[in-house]
Here is the input.
Amino acid sequence: FYLEFHSTMIQASGPLPSSRIDSFAEAAGIDVAQMREDMNDPAIEAHLEDVYRLGRMLGADGTPFFIVDGTPIPGANMEALNTALDAALEG
Here is the structure.
C-alpha cells in the first residue's frame, strides 16, 4: 500500500489538499479513516519529532540520508553509498 501511495504523492503536481491526499490513499488501498486518526495521534507526532531531532543531530538535512559504518552519506549518491558499503563489508 505504502509504495503505491508514496509514488503517487511524489508524482503528483499541483496543490495537494486533504481531499486529494485521501483519494490517493484510498486508491492505494489505505484505510483513510485510520490514516487520518494516525496523523493526529500525539504518540506518532512525538515519535516523528524524535526521529527528526536525531536526524538533525546526525547531520541529515534531507532525504535520502544513510549512515554506513559511522560514515554519513547524504543524498542519492550511489557511488559514495556503494564505496562505503564495500569498505564496511571488507573491514
Residues 42-57 form the longest helix (16 residues).
